[in-house]
Design brief:
Elements (H helix, E strand, L loop, with lengths): L1 E7 L5 E7 L3 H10 L3 E7 L5 H10 L5 H16 L4 H11 L3 H15 L4 H6 L7 H13 L2 H58 L5 H35 L2 H12 L4 H22 L4 H9 L5 H6 L1 H8 L5 H7 L4 H13 L2 H51 L7
Antiparallel strand pairs: 1-2, 1-3
Helix pairs in contact: 3-4, 3-8, 4-5, 7-8, 7-11, 8-9, 8-11, 8-17, 9-10, 9-17, 11-12, 11-17, 14-15, 15-16, 16-17
């Protein structure tokens, strides 16, 4: 099979070409035997240039996938022995997104000016997160930048994969809701009013289901503005509450106590905290600094507040597990795993394992929930549409009983 590739030679010169190989792994091995450092490989029968140009115009914003791709490429080229400035120069030359290209060129300019990579990344906080910058800073201090990028790549890959799984799982229920809801609205706003005029002209008493249906239709047609005002008021009130610390805490507390989604949201917060903290500690960042950063990535103000005693406990030498147990916000399994990690001296490894376990549990819970949600949506739409159809049919059948 024919593959295209991009690689650099020992001098850092960019090389593009195509080669026959059994698979991508074989092609990479061939390039390495030739003394090249592979950057990317792909099928020659890939995306058409016109289609690629069109897709690039749809998304110019730097995404998490772009940063993940950059991280993996930095890890590969630095591990191959290419200097950092030359690596950034090659990657900037290959980049197709103009916005990301400008970021890479600015990083290169800063490196060539004598600044550290972490300081250069810190200037682009809209692209690189606190976790990313802090991990790179710790890696530079420890002299193990390529290993840091490898860990960051694994961290970001797990995060992006979980996001993709959730997004893909939600697409079908969302499509069902939009299509079914649109069909119901069309019937209520356009179809039923026409039947209403016919029935009123013919006189007589219509069946109860038909009268109920016409009442709902007329109410929505006459007072749709009241619904808009109601939902706008709810939105504005929620927005007002989210601007205050107490409001955020109350909303977050309510979400965590929800019957079905509460446990999932709690596990997701623990997973983000554990993965971030483990990655930062593996990168060589002190535990107190890592804790202060990891707390801000939880996505749950209520649980983040419960970490404050933990940070104080670590500062006093009490460790993490005991203060977490006393706080009572973390699940018992998480506390137990962290206790084992502290006792064995492998806390960072146990944090990563805890995050992976909870990611699997979250994915399973979401799949189960969606497996129940899909038939529930179909059943609900069937009941609503069926009621509308039956109400109209009853009215049609009752025409013979109406006075002519």
């Amino acid at each position: 099979m024919l593959y295209t590739y991009q690689a650099t030679d020992t001098s850092g010169r960019l090389i593009k070409g195509s080669m026959e190989a059994r698979d991508e792994k074989t092609l990479v091995e061939k390039l390495q035997e030739m003394g090249y450092y592979p950057i990317s490989v792909g099928s020659a029968a890939g995306e058409k240039p016109a289609l690629r140009r069109f897709s690039l115009t749809l998304s110019r914003r730097v995404s998490g996938r772009d940063v993940l791709r950059l991280t993996n490429e930095l890890s590969s080229l630095l591990e191959a022995g290419l200097p950092l400035d030359r690596t950034l120069s090659v990657l900037a030359e290959l980049e197709t997104k103009e916005e990301f290209k400008r970021v890479l060129l600015d990083l290169l300019k800063g490196i060539q000016g004598g600044a550290s990579l972490a300081d250069c990344l810190d200037k682009h906080r809209s692209v690189f997160s606190d976790v990313y910058v802090s991990t790179v800073r710790a890696g530079e201090a420890g002299g193990s930048l390529e290993a840091v990028f490898e860990r960051l790549g694994r961290f970001m890959d797990q995060t992006e994969r979980l996001k993709d799984d959730i997004t893909s799982a939600l697409l079908y229920p969302l499509l069902l809701t939009v299509v079914g809801g649109s069909a119901v609205l069309v019937m209520i706003f356009f179809v039923i009013p026409k039947f209403s005029v016919i029935f009123e002209d013919m006189g007589g008493v219509m069946p109860l289901p038909t009268r109920m249906l016409l009442f709902v239709s007329e109410g929505l047609l006459s007072y749709w503005w009241a619904g808009l005002i109601f939902f706008a008021g709810v939105y504005l009130e929620l927005r007002r509450r989210t601007r205050t610390e107490e409001g955020k805490l109350s909303i977050d507390r309510a979400k965590l106590k929800a019957p079905v989604m509460g446990p999932v949201l709690r596990k997701a917060a623990v997973s983000r905290f554990a993965r971030t903290l483990g990655t930062l500690m593996q990168g060589g960042l002190p535990i107190l600094d890592a804790l202060n950063i990891a707390v801000n990535t939880m996505g749950s103000p209520f649980m983040a507040r419960s970490i404050a005693p933990v940070i104080e406990g670590v500062r006093r030498g009490r460790g993490m597990a005991l203060p977490l147990k006393e706080a009572g916000s973390f699940p018992p399994l998480a506390v137990q795993m962290l206790t084992v990690g502290e006792e064995t001296g492998r806390l960072e490894d146990m944090l990563i394992k805890l995050a992976e376990n909870y990611d699997r549990e979250i994915a399973t819970a979401i799949k189960r929930g969606l497996a129940l949600l899909e038939p529930a949506i179909i059943l609900l739409m069937a009941v609503v549409v069926g009621f509308i159809v039956i109400s109209l049919l009853l009215a049609i059948f009752s025409i013979n009983d109406m006075p002519m």
